[in-house]
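INPUT
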Amino acid sequence: MAANPTAAMIVIGDEILSGRTRDSNLHHLAGKLTDHGIDLVEARVIGDRRQTIIDTVNALRARVDHVFTSGGIGPTHDDITADAVAAAFGLTAGIRDDARALLEDYFASRGVEATPARMRMARVPEGAVLIDNPVSVAPGFSLGNVHVMAGVPSVFEAMLQGVLPRLTGGAPVRSRTLRMLRGEGDVAEILEAVAAEYPDLSFGSYPFQQDGRYGTNLVIRGTDEALLNQALFRLESALSEDAA
Amino acid sequence: MAANPTAAMIVIGDEILSGRTRDSNLHHLAGKLTDHGIDLVEARVIGDRRQTIIDTVNALRARVDHVFTSGGIGPTHDDITADAVAAAFGLTAGIRDDARALLEDYFASRGVEATPARMRMARVPEGAVLIDNPVSVAPGFSLGNVHVMAGVPSVFEAMLQGVLPRLTGGAPVRSRTLRMLRGEGDVAEILEAVAAEYPDLSFGSYPFQQDGRYGTNLVIRGTDEALLNQALFRLESALSEDAA
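OUTPUT
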């Protein structure tokens, strides 16, 4: 698992931090990256402030293989992401001809005037690769290892479908889950013992409540399906012996 | 708004980053802090790694008035938060008598043995103030300006109810939302013009899709209800003039 490429996400939006909107892009990205064999190691939610975006992009792009951003692209005054990401690389963002063409065709097809405000959506940093937006045309972009996508979930998800095939993944991380109506404390020692037998797998336990009872999901993660099945069987046996 | 106390959140859990679990504590905390007049300025989701927790706690506690953590407390081997938060302050976490008493009574009342694994939930840093857990007893704690709470939503929310009254809030941030079936680009210029008239308020626009049509939520935020109503009226008038 350590050999897989790493990624970080930056969710940009005051509306998430104010509690107005519930982000769903992090959960979506996390699942897709796991399937693709890329390890998401951190996510940050930050406000729509230029310097904050610049600092966060620079802090993370140096530390992981890929940075994915969500939100803050679009025509309005609070959408400063394209400029901020460009600035993080010491570049500027202007209305690029390829992006301009996409939008002008789109607006023309809908009989909508291409106002300056609308054309701001064509602002892309120099040297960036466009990310296709099959939902609402206004493109995202990849600049170096930073992939800038929209915040609207349907658009974010469509853009991600365009980006992921370009990225080299590692071995997909698989998991096995054992759900039981026993408290975490009941199984901690057994879990620790079995985990020690399988250094190549990662073990976690996640408590839940159901009808006022406590339960625990024991999760084993790794890239080797056979080893996962073996460890799952070992864990099940150890727990049933203990319960007997 | 700038005068309000600031906060950051740290969501601790590999299960969020792997996409296995969808976090709901950030959205809950964000709403409660807004009502309490505390500005959430950043949230980070990090893995269950000791050094990562130490570094993140130290980076954020120096920058905001309050840090709230979610997850990584409990009896199992991957729950290292109490130790890591203590270490961030140069302290250690041990089984404290007050926490031990809480748990022993609880286990006794349920006829459960107080095993070493279970008693790990009584580990609290020196000098920390316990956070009551009416759901499942194992307490959280406040150490300096860092408030350490469980990840299970029902427990996190109950703990937060215990912590918030202790914290000095500022003026609650209120908002007004104008929902319209016009694209962001259609209203960007008007929004910008009205926003310029009200420097004490913050304006945002958030696109959505409905039945294949594009709409936008225009949101005005501030602490002065009268000013908010005035700005909302001004924005409505400007938009209807434009549509006419």
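end of record. Chain B touches chain A through 67 residues (CB under 8 Å).
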